[in-house]
Amino acid sequence: MKIKDQSLLKSEAYINGEWIKKETSFSVYNPFNNEEIAQVSDCTQADTDLAISAADKAFKIWSTYTANKRSRILQNWYKLIIENVKDLAHILTVEQGKPLPEAIGEIKYGASYIEWFAEEAKRVYGDVIPGQSKKNRITVIKQPVGIVGAITPWNFPSAMITRKIAPALAAGCTVIVKPSEYTPLSALALAELADRAGFPKGVINILPSNNAQEIGETLTSNSKVKKISFTGSTRVGKLILKQSADQVKKVTLELGGNAPFIVFADADIDAAVEGCFASKFRNGGQTCVCTNRIFLHESIHDEFVEKFTAKVKSIKTGYGLEEGIQIGPMINEDAVTKDINLLKDATSKGATIITGGQRKEGLFLEPTVICDLDSQMDIFSSEIFGPIAAIYKFDSESDVIEMANNTNYGLASYFYGRDYALIWRVAEALEFGMVGINTGVMSTVAAPFGGVKESGFGREGSKYGIDEYLNIKYMCWGGVE
Ligand code: SIN
């Protein structure tokens, strides 16, 4: 791989501050051309146990550092990531497929969580509460939960790691990361920079593995691990929740989505087209917050579809390292097949493909616009996770709210409209953790990211993000007279 600093290309596990080469390894492929990029050490239960012991020892040191000291090390890490942004983005594009400018954006987005929580580390305030008896005083302190297991996805191989472990580290926790088997190289490059930043041994451990289940079960069944944070499918999230229940572990789940994008009759159509395009096609449609169901008021339906389709037709797909590419390949064969089947199901039930719809060589599906959809089609209730814009028509506010909420998911939602009262009504009525109002992009470190219903619970980013890694302890002081 052509990067400046070759030492960022790691293929070993990172446990207790050591790079550990395993006898068995698994292949990582470039999804654009299916070429093998690396053979990466394949961790097992034994490695996970080793990482847990290391994280346990390290916790006794790291959690007693002053917040300032932890903050400075996090800041070192942030600076190193920014200095190496080009190399990190290159690695990310090669293993994940997203276009290089988008990969650069992800590295900066991911780094912003480290910068943010380096600051928040110093603001983990307690409380003093007046007691109900004259003799008593009440104080509250916050303490790190302990060892955190972070299981992260392939769609944001860098940012989903930092979004979890930066607040954990800031709080004083130690971490064990199981990155996706599709994209372990970005995680290992982050570990190399963390090593240079000065984290003590065992504070950060990265376990690449082709056997997510084995690592997940080891993390959830070990009582030393106090918290699991997972981003991925709702199916796997439910398993992790069940496994964590035995020890009543703290859990954060950032799971699937089925985001509605509603355009009301009075909306600024050009702005809505832009917003919808950004939300739908970010990362080739492979984000949990991507628009999944576009609801257009019947009075603006045709105008929107015409303008939106023109933009979709202009999308350049190809190799993410080439200039001008807007969408790279999908992640694997299953992802492409799933979307092709959704299109087949919809068209067999009366839907119309306006543009796209064809499979292309490699892991590509043409950017697609499909209309005349209804709630009986599989596409209505499935997370598309690909470049298909699925369009529905509505005629009343109450109907569209009912349709939008007609899903087990509750992560992101979006709508465009101008009427002030309508905006309040709709924003309050949508059963989602996040609502974009006249915007299609709302992910930022400053805001609490997370869902309701089967999209999970817990919040990442913002002032709330660090609370997920802290326990509240109440101390009652008696005999104060
Ligand atoms: C995700 O797809 O899970 C994260 C996307 C984001 O942070 O915007």
Polypeptide structure, described:
The chain has 481 residues and is an alpha/beta fold. It has two domains: 6-256 and 455-475, Aldehyde Dehydrogenase, Chain A, domain 1 (3-Layer(aba) Sandwich); 259-406 and 412-444, Aldehyde Dehydrogenase, Chain A, domain 2. The protein has 14 helices and 22 strands. It has helices at residues 45-62, 67-83, 85-96, 100-120, 159-171, 184-197, 212-221, 234-245, 269-281, 301-313, 333-348, 378-381, 397-405, 420-429, and strands at residues 13-15, 18-20, 25-29, 36-41, 127-130, 137-144, 147-151, 174-178, 204-206, 225-231, 250-254, 259-263, 291-297, 352-355, 359-360, 364-365, 368-371, 388-394, 412-416, 434-437, 456-457, 470-477. The protein has a seven-stranded mixed sheet, with helices on both faces. A six-stranded mixed sheet has the order 9-8-7-10-11-21, sandwiched between helices. Strands 5-6-22 form a three-stranded antiparallel sheet, with no helix packed on it. Strand 15 (359-360) and strand 16 form a beta hairpin. Helix 9 (269-281) crosses helix 10. The protein is globular and about 70 Å long. Succinic acid (SIN) is lined by residues 155-156, 231, 254, 287-289, 443, 449.
